């Protein structure tokens, strides 16, 4: 009886002792993390004392000062006070250097620092392709893929770009007759996916008329939101914690849809090249497209690309080749809609070239100086890539004498650079004359597609399709803003609008 009576008491004592041990271990871990946080913060404060910082909380950094989708407004607020570079505390012991000065940009872009560690959140989707490789491996892939964007490849595809734009405009004509506003980013994104599928992968169908592509675009949109959200939330940086969240499950689901789309593209081309006759014809082509080059490529050691590397490059181009130009075109259309005088002058220039119904050609793209100026000014105000990050592999000293130690993450903020009043007088004013032939700019004052050796490999393709889209659209429509829905720029992987980009379309007679 005595043993039976004491058993529950002993059990409770054991449980109590176990809980005490757990509490003690938890307390020690908390104290360790607090000490680690304190020491890291003190080191950062000493290492970065030369750089100013907006007022911040010792633990939460700047996170309490703005909502996630208001970061761009917050940055612009401090540009006049801190026009060179300033600290952005993500957490009390986690900080970025926001760079918005062209001299600083030139120094960092002239180095070979790796991408910031935050980009690892993209690898489940885009793999380890050209976007994320470093060193010799990056150089090999860049050298391998550069021919796919040579002028000889771009020239004959102007007609294909025009066909994709015309399909979009035909759909817009039906909407214009209904006198309603149109959210333009989605149809432009679909048009750009159609274009990149034909340009880079020799796709024979029409993505814009195929509903199966809608699932891929939705997956890309979801991944944009999910990855950006994870980057901006320090609690989600830890893989163990993140894998327990619904965000992780949604990311995995969206990645699967995106990979299925790109896998179909690769399998289709491989199937077309099974017979010797098709392969011989491919090898005899004067100019190979992006996927041709990948399938026939050999690395320096003689090996071909692995299936994993092949998919990474295809996924990267599929995303970058449609989403970035779609952002650029959408914002250019909005800028022209809100500046009708400039829009009309562009239209008259295009009409002088194509008003008789002539198809647009490569030569026409170089005969639109004012339209090109307006496109560049819109890209200044709304750069498709708001920022890129680098993690310093060695210390760096800037022209003004300030320096940064190894291991610091530098964010090259192109949106801030383009709105910097020290670089661009009256930066919020739409003024295409900034890009006139006789204008003088700092070599790194205008970076809509980044700069240096790691600039956007498809920047010429993007500029060409921008010109084609603007020219053909202005021939058929007058673009008008919707005053009730003014877009709010928000920083994601590409520059988006928090509330969409809505325009009225008025068909020209």
From TrEMBL:
PROSITE patterns in the cross-refs: CYTOCHROME_P450
Transmembrane portions of the chain: 12-32
Location(s) in or outside the cell: Endoplasmic reticulum membrane; Microsome membrane
Needed co-factor(s): heme
GO cellular component: apical plasma membrane; cytoplasm; endoplasmic reticulum membrane; extracellular space
Chain residues that bind heme: 456
Primary localisation category: endoplasmic reticulum
UniProt keyword annotations, A-Z: Endoplasmic reticulum, Heme, Iron, Membrane, Metal-binding, Microsome, Monooxygenase, Oxidoreductase, Transmembrane, Transmembrane helix
CDD domains in UniProt: CYP4B-like
InterPro entries attached to this UniProt entry: Cyt_P450 (IPR001128), Cyt_P450_CS (IPR017972), Cyt_P450_E_grp-I (IPR002401), Cyt_P450_sf (IPR036396), Cytochrome_P450_Monoox (IPR050196)
One GO-annotated biological process of the protein: icosanoid biosynthetic process
PANTHER family: CYTOCHROME P450 4A10-RELATED (PTHR24291:SF165), CYTOCHROME P450 FAMILY 4 (PTHR24291)
Stated family: Belongs to the cytochrome P450 family.
Protein name according to UniProt: Cytochrome P450, family 4, subfamily a, polypeptide 29
Organism: Mus musculus
């Amino acid at each position: 009886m005595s043993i039976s009576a004491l058993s529950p008491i002993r059990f409770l004592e054991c449980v109590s002792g176990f809980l005490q041990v757990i509490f003690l271990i938890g307390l020690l871990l908390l104290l360790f993390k607090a000490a680690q946080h304190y020491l890291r913060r003190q080191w950062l404060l000493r290492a970065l004392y030369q750089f100013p910082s907006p007022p911040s909380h010792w633990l939460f950094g700047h996170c309490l000062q703005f909502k996630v989708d208001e970061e761009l407004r917050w940055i612009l607020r401090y540009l006049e006070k801190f026009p060179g570079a300033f600290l952005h505390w993500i957490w009390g012991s986690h900080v970025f250097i926001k760079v918005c000065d062209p001299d600083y940009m030139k120094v960092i872009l002239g180095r070979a620092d790796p991408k910031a560690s935050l980009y690892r959140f993209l690898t489940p989707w885009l793999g380890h392709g050209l976007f994320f490789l470093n060193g010799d491996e990056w150089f090999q892939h860049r050298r391998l893929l550069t021919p796919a964007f040579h002028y000889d490849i771009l020239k004959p595809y102007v007609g294909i770009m025009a066909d994709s734009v015309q399909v979009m405009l035909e759909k817009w004509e039906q909407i214009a007759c209904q006198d309603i506003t149109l959210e333009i980013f989605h149809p432009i994104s679909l048009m750009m996916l159609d274009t990149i599928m034909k340009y880079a992968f020799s796709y024979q169908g029409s993505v814009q008329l195929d509903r199966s592509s809608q699932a891929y675009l939705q997956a890309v949109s979801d991944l944009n939101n999910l990855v950006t959200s994870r980057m901006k939330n320090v609690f989600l940086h830890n893989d163990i914690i993140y894998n327990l969240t619904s965000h992780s499950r949604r990311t995995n689901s969206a990645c699967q849809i995106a990979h299925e789309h790109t896998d179909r593209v690769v399998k289709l081309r491989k199937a077309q090249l099974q017979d010797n006759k098709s392969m011989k014809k491919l090898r005899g082509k004067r100019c190979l497209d992006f996927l041709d080059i990948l399938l026939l490529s050999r690395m320096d050691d003689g090996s071909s690309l692995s299936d994993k590397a092949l998919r990474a490059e295809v996924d990267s181009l599929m995303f970058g080749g449609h989403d970035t130009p779609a952002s650029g075109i959408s914002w250019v259309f909005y800028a022209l809609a809100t500046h009708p005088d400039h829009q009309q002058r562009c239209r008259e220039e295009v009409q002088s070239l194509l008003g008789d119904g002539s198809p647009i050609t490569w030569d026409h793209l170089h005969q639109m100086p004012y339209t090109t100026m307006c496109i560049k000014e819109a890209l200044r105000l709304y750069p498709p890539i708001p920022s890129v990050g680098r993690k310093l592999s060695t210390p760096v000293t800037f022209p003004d004498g300030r320096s940064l130690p190894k291991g610091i993450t530098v964010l090259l903020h192109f949106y801030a650079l383009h709105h910097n009043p020290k670089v661009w007088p009256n930066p919020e004013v739409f003024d295409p004359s900034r890009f006139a032939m006789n204008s003088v700019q700092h070599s790194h004052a205008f970076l809509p597609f980044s700069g240096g050796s790691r600039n956007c490999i498809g920047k010429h393709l993007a500029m060409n399709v921008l010109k084609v889209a603007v020219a053909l659209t202005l021939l058929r429509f007058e673009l008008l803003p919707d005053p009730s829905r003014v877009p709010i720029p928000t920083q994601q992987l590409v520059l988006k609008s928090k509330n969409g980009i809505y325009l009225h379309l008025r068909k020209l007679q």
